[in-house]
Write a structure and sequence with these properties.
CATH architecture of the largest domain: 3-Layer(aba) Sandwich
Radius of gyration: 21 Å
Number of domains: 2
Strand order of the largest sheet: 3-2-1-4-5-6-7
Distance between the termini: 44 Å
Number of helices: 15
Shape: globular
Helix content: 25-40%
Number of strands: 13
CATH topology of the largest domain: Rossmann fold
Length: 399
């Protein structure tokens, strides 16, 4: 079986999921290949050229419209001899929408990576045209089944997962004598979802011996640096980190700090726990508390409560035994339920089930009538001021 996974190679969680899933599905006889759209002449991002061996880049000339781009995508799918596709909802709007137009004999699996209303609206727009839905967290599934009427029997939870052999148990770097806790933020530098503008306030409440490394890139990096300038060793900006360098980076830090407003199930959190880097993260119902059991293998704080986050870190700074206990338990949690083997087995079961007995779905639409359904078009929420949206997101998680 050969499956196209809609994604472009990049330094980020969705592509890490692809790489792990590709390796995990191979023993099941399923070949997973990435397939992505990009402007003509752009090519793959620097440092990721080797990923061309595992997928297909569909180049889109600048003068073509969405319908023409969709035709190019459809042509690549058919030419590739794929048995099915995996669409990551809202990763790309054309690729999300294309499942409504593909030939009826192709397997179509939708993956929902986030808990935002916009993501759910897009998922609902293509639901009649997919055979099954995978949610990366329990929260996603609960919301889609209970509030958006997704069929329970065709909506599953399969968590993002890691390859444990990349995270050796003996790989942790000891903290130098007399040094405070080494904190790490790893992810997209973006405030709306990641809450990065809370980092300066958290750090300001910590002992001067504590250090913070910020690894990643994003459109809010410049503003974050203005609010919290680099002052090594107290604050260090490490920039974007290649996937193969992530385990060593995590092993050099004691605490993974994640003040997010919303997530699906962040790969960085799973990776941190695999490395024994203790998670101190926002409590997101059905998301972070799906993997972190507060006080056992990590610690949770209310969204936006920088004082609580800092108090947790200060406590760990004076309780080495608890820090070590949480580190060991975090690793054990990943070993038990968040491995590539576990994730791949879940996907393989779904693919084979669809192939053997495909559920009845809506008939394909004609690509001549290409259009974006309402759930994939910009809605009122798109135009709300960012501060108001951020406030609403915080309120939603606290209720």
């Amino acid at each position: 079986m050969k499956i196209a996974y809609f994604v472009l190679p990049h330094l980020g969680g969705t592509y890490t999921v692809f790489r792990n899933l590709r390796a995990g599905l191979a023993p099941h006889g399923i070949e997973l290949c990435w397939l992505g759209l990009a402007p003509a002449g752009q090519g793959l991002a620097s440092g990721l050229e080797q990923e061309a061996a595992f997928g297909t880049l569909v180049e889109v000339p600048s003068q073509v419209d969405d319908r023409a781009a969709a035709r190019l995508l459809e042509r690549a799918i058919l030419a590739g001899g794929f048995d099915g596709v995996v669409v990551n909802v809202l990763s790309d709007r054309i690729q999300t929408n294309i499942v409504r137009y593909l030939p009826a004999d192709l397997i179509r699996l939708m993956v929902v990576h986030n808990i935002t209303p916009g993501t759910y609206a897009a998922a609902e727009a293509i639901r009649p045209h997919v055979h099954a839905t995978v949610c990366v967290s329990q929260r996603c599934r609960d919301d889609l089944v209970k509030r958006h009427h997704f069929p329970a029997g065709r909506t599953s939870v399969i968590a993002n997962a890691v390859a444990l052999d990349a995270f050796p148990e003996t790989g942790r770097s000891p903290r130098p004598s007399g040094q405070g806790l080494r904190l790490l933020f790893l992810g997209r530098i973006e405030d709306a979802s990641k809450g990065v503008f809370w980092l300066p306030d958290i750090l300001a409440r910590l002992p001067a011996s504590s250090t913070l490394t910020i690894a990643g890139d994003g459109h809010d990096l410049k503003r974050l640096k203005a609010a919290m300038p680099e002052r090594a060793p107290r604050v260090v900006y490490a920039g974007a980190v290649a996937a193969q360098a992530v385990p060593a980076l995590l092993a050099r830090h004691d605490i993974f700090l994640m003040p997010s407003r919303y997530e699906g199930l962040p790969m960085a959190l799973v990776e941190a726990m695999a490395a024994g880097c203790v998670p101190v993260v926002s409590r997101l119902r059905g998301v972070t508390d799906m993997i972190v059991e507060h006080g056992r293998d990590g610690l949770l704080f209310p969204v936006g409560d920088t004082a609580s986050a800092a108090e947790i870190v200060r406590t760990l700074d004076t309780d080495h035994a608890q820090l070590c206990s949480l580190s060991v338990a975090a690793r054990r949690k990943v070993e038990g339920a968040f491995t590539v083997e576990h994730m791949a087995a879940g996907y393989a079961t779904i693919f084979r089930g669809i192939a053997a007995d495909p559920p009845l779905i809506a008939a394909p639409l004609s690509i001549n009538g290409w259009s974006m359904p309402r759930g994939l078009r910009a809605g009122l929420r798109t135009f709300l001021p960012r501060p108001l949206k951020n406030w609403l997101r915080g309120v939603r998680e606290r209720l």
